[in-house]
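Hey all, quick one. A colleague (J.T.) asked me to put the adenosine-5'-triphosphate job into the tracker so the inputs and the structure tokens live in one place instead of scattered across chat threads. No bug as far as I know, just bookkeeping. Sequence used:
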Amino acid sequence: MLNDNKMKEKENGEHYCLGVESTADDFSVGISTFDGEILANIISAYVPSERGIHPREAARHHGEVANKVLENAFKKARIKPRDLSIISFSQGPGLGPCLRTGATVARALASYLGIPLVGINHCVAHIEIGKLKTDTKDPVTLYVSGGNTIVSAFDSGRYRVFGETLDIALGNCLDVFAREAGLHQRVDEPFGAVVEKIAAKGKKLIHLPYTVKGMDMSFSGLLTAAINLLKRGEYKLEDLCYSLQETVFSMVTEVTERALAHTEKKEVLLTGGVAANKRLQSRIKAIAKEHDAKFRVMPREFAVDNGAMIAWTGVLAHTHGIVTPIEESFVRLRWRLEEVEIPWMK
Ligand code: ATP
Ligand code: FE2
């Protein structure tokens, strides 16, 4: 049963969008009103085996939990499927089997309910929920996670990529190093957080390759070098973690600062799973201050992959005329941020 308030909202024409996120190791469902009130954001994380994420295993997890996550989202939002106006889903970029599982759930719901489907770019969604939740309007965004390292800002109708990784993502670099070092992660303490804790005890800065080419970054050579030093056993783990963090954070800070100087934007937004790192936060905060820009960091619930960001971006897209017909709702594994037109930004 709808409670009285919700019943009134529905009568008054309150609209809701349900968003499905499944690009990588999380399956999540969010529900947003058309005004940007997030009514539910249920996240089910798949914790991979010691060897790292296997796309098909993660996809199996998503399929298994989908029902329960949907049910919990409706319960939390206190609405029923029939109250929804649109369904949105993360259409890419991401891992094929994972994306396809989420897309199947979203298509089934939209066709059963006879309501529009909207395919959303995952990276756009990170930026939009960031703006919504931190009250920023036009930031330079540093999005750092296990699968992405992107510095972007809005220009002429799109979010332009000012700098990105040429190989692996920053979060992935920390994760692989942690795994090689024999560390263990938990749902509430991912590898990056484990490395952060150990790095806090480090003092000695060990030289590691620093690779920024133009505005792009490379982390794989540095990762190999760090692993080699680890295996040689000459350095303390805390000094290696400290040096790894300092080097990778200096790289993203340099690129973010240059994007800020070039665009002259007055806001900097830090998001993605790695945004939780206090050391990274202080580095980015410092450059924002130097450029007289406001610094904002996303709270963890909305910085990691989440359905709420897909639901909210679904609202923005749909209210600006975007619909994804079922026959065009195939997933887009390498869908780039700057390919997406952003009609809601002026
Ligand atoms: P995406 O699909 O956007 O690439 P993802 O699947 O990697 O995202 P997120 O939860 O956004 O998921 O990010 C996870 C990454 O964040 C992991 O690499 C993890 O180690 C890292 N991370 C989490 N907490 C911290 C921290 N305190 N310091 C550094 N890294 C962290
Ligand atoms: Fe993400």
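Adding what we noticed when we looked at it: The mean pLDDT is 95. The two ends are 40 Å apart (CA to CA).
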